Amino acid sequence: MYLLTGIPAFELTNTFIDAEAIWGKEIRTVHEQMCNSDEVEAVIGLAEAFLNRLVKNSKFGLQGIDKVGAAILNQKRPLSIDTLASDSCLSSRQFLRRFVERTGVGPKLFDKVVRFERAFFMKNAHPHLDWLTIALACGYHDYQHLAKDYKYFTNMTPTGFYELDTKAPERTFGVVEVRQELVF
């Protein structure tokens, strides 16, 4: 969102901002076109066209810091802050400030969320796997490290949350995660 708006992510969190204040009257026109459309595909096409125009006309260029989030998402093991800062050609302090500006959270919390999500989806895609295998495949040191993150994010144990999740409505409708390859 920072690249599209120039507004730091932490300023957009838990606030209400009128879309017209950011994107002008064009957003109202697109919204009206979406409301007058009867087909889902047409609505999606309008949204995609609007977003493509925003990206094409963005005043903010992609910088090294913007590639770090993708690096964290694609890493199997945690990266050090110094390495990430060096890769983005910034000092550690500048890196931390700009990362929070673009994502709304610090890189350590972002990495923690990514690992947790990876473990969550892996267990759903491979229910036969034990938690230790999942923990090691997702970059955790051991099961207790994984359990600590589960407690932090869900206030439950991994097994307790998994059992609760298997009863979720989307599971009843057959929505499941795509199988992920195990990488150690």
UniProtKB/TrEMBL annotation:
Keyword tags: DNA-binding, Transcription, Transcription regulation
Gene3D superfamilies: Homeodomain-like
Source organism superkingdom: Bacteria
GO molecular-function terms, A-Z: DNA-binding transcription factor activity; sequence-specific DNA binding
Domain HTH araC/xylS-type as annotated: residue spans: 74-164
Pfam families attached to this UniProt entry: HTH_18 (PF12833)
PANTHER family, A to Z: HTH-TYPE TRANSCRIPTIONAL ACTIVATOR RHAS (PTHR46796:SF13), HTH-TYPE TRANSCRIPTIONAL ACTIVATOR RHAS-RELATED (PTHR46796)
Name listed for the protein in its UniProt record: Transcriptional regulator, AraC family
